[in-house]
Amino acid sequence: MVDADIRTSQLRIDNDSIGLVQWKGDYNHSDGQLNFDVAADNSLANFTAKGSVGLSDSNRVVNASTDLNNTSISLLNKYLGDYVSELTGTATGHLDVTGTTDKPSFRGSVKVQDIGMKVNYLGTYYKIPLLHVHHMDDNLIEMKPFTLIDKFNNRAVVNGFIQHQNFYDMVFEFDVQSNKFLFLDTGPTDNDLYYGTVLSQGRVYFTGPLDNLELRVLARPLKGTHFFLPLSDSKDIGKHDYIRFRQYGKVVEETKKKSDIKLNVKMDIAANPDAQIDVILNASTNDVISANGTGNLAINVNLEGDFTMYGNYTINTGTYNFSFQRLASWKFDIDKNSTITWNGDPGEAIVNITAKYSLPKVNLYNLSTAASMGGTTTTDDKLATRSERVDILLYLRQSLTQPNITYEIVLPDVGSMAYESGVASRLKEINSNQNQALYQISYLLATDNSSRRTAAPMWPSPVRTVWDRR
What's the pTM value of the predicted model, to 2 decimals? Predict the structure, then answer.
């Protein structure tokens, strides 16, 4: 028989200080039974626990109880940190533990107050005023409906329970619903596959066993939603060896042994014009399609990095930040009803986009037949003496990351007058040859001084073109 009466003043568990703890107990070698009586009265840990536990091969019987009195749950950060971090809150309640160490049986009720936590995968920080686990037995953990509060003080109602077999083979069944709630709040350093802010009306289901968990989000985005899809490194989009996320103030790349816990995330988004979607084609040149539109989008991703996306997105309004030869970029307006269609790999989406850039005043003299032949215009060719609006059109077709781009220059305001002028034939000649069209467009964009140009070009000496801008 071994007796012990120990008092510790700076007990630490996983580098967290528990504080003052009083230990009393004895151990009987003959039957392998440990009797204990533990008490802690500290700001972090305020609890009592007493009972007995068998530690030998022939004796594994457990008979114990514990009372929690505003005990901090922050100690759980160590064990839940891959999925939930910044965990705070206090627990009060009573638990009885019987059965064996191989098959423990829990009974009791616990209230956890003032919970704060960050869901790492979603980047969202939530508060829970009260979580009441009102029933616990060998097969079921039940809790009363509770409230989640996001950083904007929007509220969601959560219902759910956990099925288990003596705390093995756990199966989760939870659903979250709200008319307005923050379901995603990540940045480019949090996730290589997608990021952004998703504020929406919707419902979330968190279901399944630990080896096949599913987080399903059904969302109708609301104003304030901004979703980013970075496709710069398209060859790696469909499959990543890991998902990178921020944890404890630093970026962690998961290279450790794979966990038995499997999480599949499925997001069904009913996109509408309240939500803005940015498709980043090339981050280094800032080539971005930014759009508001409609469509049903399905995004599937797991912790192994498998990433697929499905759905047809019809653009209502949008812009294409077009970078030319890495020298400068211009913001083209995307035509309404342009589309992006995803059928799996996000980088292999099919696009049907028309984008336009307008130049308000361009001298049309050099488009006349006379100018192309080295002569002078006549008074009969009135259009050739005017300055008119010129539209540059880009047509993006086929693959999203490597689209087939064609160019066209049009005069939207001249009407039938163009047919009476040499301008029409000259313009047709330019548009029929993509090299000529691109050559003329490059000069027009190089000499554009509007605010829609996002960087000053570094062009060589002006080239001679058929365009002469005033």
Answer: 0.78
How would you classify the pairing of strands 387-399 and 404-410?
antiparallel
Which tokens belong to 236? Answer: 């790696």
Rg (CA), the chain: 33
* Token representation of residue 285: 């040149």
pLDDT along the chain (470 residues), means of 10: 71 65 88 91 84 92 94 82 88 94 91 94 94 93 96 96 89 95 92 90 93 91 93 47 38 54 89 94 88 95 87 96 76 96 93 93 62 50 70 93 89 67 76 86 74 45 39
- The whole-number pLDDT of residue 75 equals 77
3-state secondary structure the chain: CEEEEEEEEEEEECCEEEEEEEEEEEEECCCCEEEEEEEEECCCCEEEEEEEEECCCCCCEEEEEEEEEEEECHHHHHHHCCCEEEEEEEEEEEEEEEEECCCEEEEEEEEEEEEEEEECCCCEEEEEEEEEEEEECCCEEEECCEEEECCCCCEEEEEEEEEEECCEEEEEEEEEEEEEEEEEEECCCCCCCCEEEEEEEEEEEEEEEHHHEEEEEEEEECCCCEEEEECCCHHHCCECCCCCEEECCEEECCCCCCCCCCEEEEEEEEECCCCEEEEEEECCCCEEEEEEEEEEEEEEEECCCEEEEEEEEEEEEEEEEEEECCCEEEEEEECCCCEEEEEECHHHCEEEEEEEEEEEEEECHHHCHHHHCCCCCCCCCCHHHCEEEEEEEEEEEEECCCCEEEEEEECCCCHHHHHHCHHHHHHHHHHCCHHHHHHHHHHHHHCCCCCCECCCCCCCCCCCCCCECC
The rounded distance, in Å, linking the Cα atoms of 114 and 420 is 78
Tokens of 189: 């350093």
Residue 452: the pLDDT is 54
Q: What is the pLDDT of residue 323?
A: 81
